[in-house]
Amino acid sequence: MKRSTFDALLSFLSGVSWAFVIVGAWVTFQSFVFLGIVPAIMFTFLFIFLALFLILVLEMMAIYRERHESQIKQTELLEEIQKSLKTLAPHTVHE
């Protein structure tokens, strides 16, 4: 199945985002460790929370895209069924 450019971009951004979470958490912890362990952990969790929210947004975009493509396919199938039913049914005059 051929993937669209949008799907490839979403996959790439998802991978980059996970790498950003891992590296960013380490850098955040190292940046705030001079304040103590507890504040460093708190800032790291805050960073991870925000980064995971952004990953969630990317995943939601992918889900909405898949749902949209599925609805387009379903609509095409329903239109084909409707056309085939119209050709099979006898033409009646409504009074």
Give a written overview of the molecule.
The longest helix has about 50 residues, at about 35-90. The chain has about 100 residues and is mostly helical. It has helices spanning about 5-30, 35-90. It starts with a helix and ends in a 7-residue tail after the last helix. The chain contains two helices and no strands. About 0% of the residues are buried. α1 runs antiparallel to α2 (about 35-90). Helix content is about 85%, strand content about 0%.
Keywords:
rod-shaped, mainly alpha, 2 helices, single chain, 95 residues
**Beta-strand share of residues:** under 5%
The largest pleated sheet is described as: none
- Overall pLDDT: 88
Structural class: mainly alpha
